[in-house]
Structure formats: C-alpha cells, structure tokens
Amino acid sequence: MPSSTIDVLSRHLEHVALTYPVSDLPTLAEVLDAVPDPRHRRGRRYRLGPLLALSLLAVLSRATSLAKITRFIAGYDPDLRIQLGLPATIRLAASTLGRLLARLDGDAFDTATCAYLAAITICHPPETTTQTTTAARTPLLGLAVDGKTLRGSRTCDGVTHLLAAVRHDTQTVLAQRQVEAKSNEIPAFTPLLSGLDLSAMVITADALHTQHEHARQIVAAGGHFLFIVKANQPTLHRRLKALPWRETVLNDRTDERGHGRREIRRLKICTTRPDLPFPHAAQAIQIKRRRTDLKTGKTTIITIHAITSLPPGRITHAQLAALIRGHWSVEALHHIRDVTHREDACKVRTGGAPWILAGLRNLAVGLTRLIGWTNITAAIDHYRSHPADGLQLLGLTT
Prior knowledge:
Elements: H1 5-13, H2 28-33, H3 48-60, H4 66-74, H5 78-83, H6 94-103, H7 106-121, E1 141-155, E2 158-167, E3 173-178, H8 186-193, E4 201-205, H9 212-220, E5 224-229, H10 234-242, E6 252-258, E7 261-271, E8 283-293, E9 299-308, H11 317-326, H12 329-340, H13 353-370, H14 376-385, H15 387-393
C-alpha cells in the first residue's frame, strides 16, 4: 500500500477524477454539519460537522469505544483543530460525546452520509459481472437489502435493529432505516427504498422480503427483483419445487476453493408458468450448493429456490449467478463491522448513539472500498499509521 501523501491522494481520487470534478463534492465535515444539531446554541464548544468527521477518522483507525474516539480527537495538532473550527485545547469527555451522539437524529445522519456515498458511487463504474453484453442496454447493479441487530444497544423496547440497502460491488450503504420496536423488517422495506433510483438496480433479498407488495414497489420504480423463496410463501415454494428441474438443462456451474472448503454451485433456470402466484415473476431459479470441508471431508448439499422479474436474455446466466452470490456482500459488511470493528462488543447503549456509530462504521468501510482497498484490516493499519492520509480522504486538509 502507498505511504506517500501524494501517492495516497492520487489513489483516493482515481475513481472520481475523470468523470466528476472533486471540487463539486463538499467535504464530509460540511455534509455532517448539515445534520440537525440537538444542542442549544449557547454553550456549544465543538462544531458538529468537524467533530463527527474526526470521530469517523477514529473509527477508520479502529477506535471501538467512546473513550478511544475522544483520545484520538484530542491527539490532533491544535492548529488543525482551529482550522476545523474546534477549540485548540480539547478536553472532550467520552460522556459528553456519548450524550451528543445519543441525541442525534439517526434518520437525518443516514440521509446525509448515504447521499454522500451515493454522490461518489455515481462515478464508480459498475462491475462487469452484472453488465449485459448488449451495448444498448443499461448495465445493472445489485443492491442487497438485509437487516442487522446492534447487540450491544439497549432501548426501553429491546435492542436497535437496522435495515440497510448495500451495493454488491462496493459494499456502500445507500440507504438505512431503523426497524420499529415490536415490529420486523417488512414494514421498513418500502420507506427504505422509496428515496432511491431503482431504474438500473436488481434488488436482492432473503426470503423474509419475498412479499407481493415489495415486488410491485420495485417494478413500479423501474427496478428488478431477485428473491429467495422459502416456506414463508408455502404455495409459491411448493410450486417452485414441483417444476421439472430434472429435465431442465444446467445453465451455470462454478467450482471454487477457499476458507478451507470446496463449493460447487449448479444453477438451473426455467421460465415461470403463468399460474405462478407471485407478481412480475419472469423466471424461476434453482441453485444447488455442494460444499465439502477439505479438512474433515464432510459434504453438505443445499437446494435453494428463487424468483426474479428479469426477463430471459436480459443478462447472461453467469451474471444471474453472480447476482445471487453478490447478495452475500451485505453479510460480508456485517462481518467486518462485527469482527474488525467489534460492533457487537461495543458497550455504547444509550439513545441513538449505537445507530450513529453503526453509520460511521458503514461510512468507513464504504469509503475505503471506493478508493480501492480490498483488505479492510490493511486500510485500518494504514490510516492509523498515516493520519494525514485520513485527513485528505475526508477533505479536511489539502
């Protein structure tokens, strides 16, 4: 990885410099300054935007607690703090930062940060695996919808649960909403996607979101869906299993080794019958996964059924298989937050603070992915060792 300031700045800009002028993008501190400040005007010692931006840099360097974040912020040069509109001498207590984060509007914070990531990803080229071979057709992007519980959080009604929409190729979160207490993810699906342009998107989701209204919403917005089908849709599941899969030709096969196992995936596709009880379903899919543990030799075979609104020929069979595999990018993001950023071990529990910290982790992972890092741990080590590069990444220095 580059250690030169000039080299790393060039690396940061490689995806946006050609098609989108960097000067047109506000700094992240300016974006975060637009989040409504819950504090009274009198007595404010720290500007909200720069404070949140420095908190993001701390998270980017794997600060996993409020105490570590405040120590990180206090360690910056006084001249830099003055330049950012903060006091030269900072005596920011972890409890003070915690109270501020607890009172922030999580929806407003997600709206600001997700819009910022979306502005950058506009210029990020789509992966060729989801791109149709027909030049006249618009390339399609996978957008995974899935939820995650913040296990360390505590509210009067339980724990905080967030539903997010994540791009397959970059792991950037384009929308996120909190699931209402004593409810589930299904009612949050419609408002989550309502503000997004779905015209070039394929929405992937697990069986919980295989709902008629969800399919109608996506198609009405100009998008496509690819849903897993399980027993929560018993009639649909039964009819999918009854399709003549033995007579259907094999459309795609992959054989991969990694993480101590070998996995063979076999994909079959057939055009759905007119009586398939699901709106806009154009194709039915069967995936067989044969997974062998290379250490023990144990083999497991799993059969999965799915449906999609994509018409035959819209994308290749290999691209459709890649979309199905790509849904797990959201699980990979959750794994990074849990293992690398130790989200589940975080003891911040009050109010909206767990939600805001989860948003900062999403932002940290999204930014590092967009500038080309494939190893998040290596990125963390780099920005912890080269804090000036982190300041440039956020537009806080030139």
